[in-house]
Specification:
alpha/beta, disordered C terminus, eight-stranded parallel sheet, globular
Length: 364
């Protein structure tokens, strides 16, 4: 068993972007009910959230933008962009979400927990330096990364983003910074339109943004292969001191906003790969934060599978072979990644040719 901390706070339910909005408080209600089920007793420990400070927010966001969001506190419904709105409790929820990720980071780095999952909302990876978008107010993960570096002296951070949508805000926060490696799998072309393979970072950060855009329809086998063949060799060379994950569950097979086919067992498999990298590089230090995921039953069961994996209670595994069409699809994806990143990272030039029917990923 590993000591897994979970950040949750009922005040995160008070962010209400509208009656028919998919980023509903019901998402956390479903997750929190699952956490209180008898079979989750003793699996994790609760970690209280706290409000992010102004200085923590300013490590990622502009002064003007922070003031704009803080000014919404206690006020009624207001639209910030076509997809993003705030209500009376939204500012408080957003401060707790960002501060909750910082608390999770501190707990893992200090050794109070082996790993942690911040189950908070609103989500964050679309939030830009000076703009709310894509349901996101503050970029919770990016704020947590800078907290790790500024407060705890962490040097290198690997960010893994498996959300359905590309994390434009996170990429833009770090695309010139070689101390943060941003790795994203996402449906493409799709909202927000960024995340093409040739977006590899800029300036000193060139090569430290690794986008793996995917057509719709990819499931457990393809995601497992991508994490094994692309993420793993790049991450082991980068050798992070901490891994932070934008854990979006809208790649779930029945998500109403997505077109992917990942199951709860698939999410456990992705978590295991990330944990294996963390064990090899940074003493198992992994922090996850909740991003998307809009199929309530699928969200609950998938988060449960991830937490149990984090806690060292894995699902029994079995071999699941790639079909010829799946292997060919992974070949194409790997080849595209190698074309743009082979000059930055060793092992990618051969990763496509190594994907054959005799070299299968292990799935739960």
């Amino acid at each position: 068993m590993r000591r897994t901390a979970v950040v949750r706070d009922e005040r995160c339910l008070d962010h209400d972007p509208g009656m028919w909005h998919p980023e509903s408080p019901k998402r956390l209600t479903a997750i929190y009910s699952m956490l209180d089920a008898p079979d989750m007793e003793g699996v994790f420990m609760d970690l209280p959230a706290r409000r992010a400070t102004r200085d923590e927010l300013l490590r990622i966001h502009s002064r003007f933008y922070v003031d704009r969001i803080l000014a919404t506190a206690g006020k009624g419904y207001r639209s910030l962009d076509p997809d993003t709105a705030v209500s009376e409790g939204s500012c408080e929820a957003a401060l707790l979400a960002a501060g909750g990720v910082c608390e999770a980071v501190s707990a893992v780095i200090s050794g109070d927990a082996d790993n942690a999952f911040a189950l908070v909302r609103p989500p964050g990876h679309h939030a830009e330096r000076g703009k709310a978008m894509g349901f996101c107010l503050f970029n919770n993960l990016a704020i947590g990364v800078r907290h790790a570096q500024a407060v705890h002296g962490i040097e290198r951070v690997l960010v893994v983003d498996w959300d359905l949508h590309h994390g434009n805000g996170t990429q833009h926060s770090f695309e010139e910074d070689p101390s943060v490696l941003y790795f994203s799998t996402h449906q493409y072309p799709y909202y927000p339109g960024s995340g093409a393979s040739d977006q590899v970072g800029r300036g000193r950060g060139e090569g430290y943004t690794v986008n793996v855009p995917l057509p719709s329809g990819k499931g457990d086998v393809e995601y497992a292969a991508i994490f094994d063949r692309i993420l793993r060799p790049v991450a082991l060379q980068f050798h992070p001191d901490l891994i932070v994950v934008s854990a979006g569950f809208d790649i779930y097979e029945n998500d109403p906003l997505g077109g992917m086919r990942v199951t709860s067992k698939g999410f456990a498999r992705l978590t295991r790969t990330v944990m294996d990298i963390a064990d090899a590089c940074c003493r198992g230090r992994v922090v996850l934060t909740l991003e998307g995921g809009y199929h309530l039953a699928g969200l609950s069961s998938s988060v449960k599978a991830v937490i149990r994996e984090l806690a060292g209670i894995p699902t029994a595994r079995r071999e699941h072979p790639l079909s010829r069409s799946e292997a060919a699809s992974i070949d194409r994806i790997a080849a595209a990644t190698a074309r743009f990143h082979g000059r930055f990272w060793k092992g990618l030039d051969g990763c496509a040719s190594s994907l054959n029917l005799n070299n299968q990923p292990t799935l739960p």
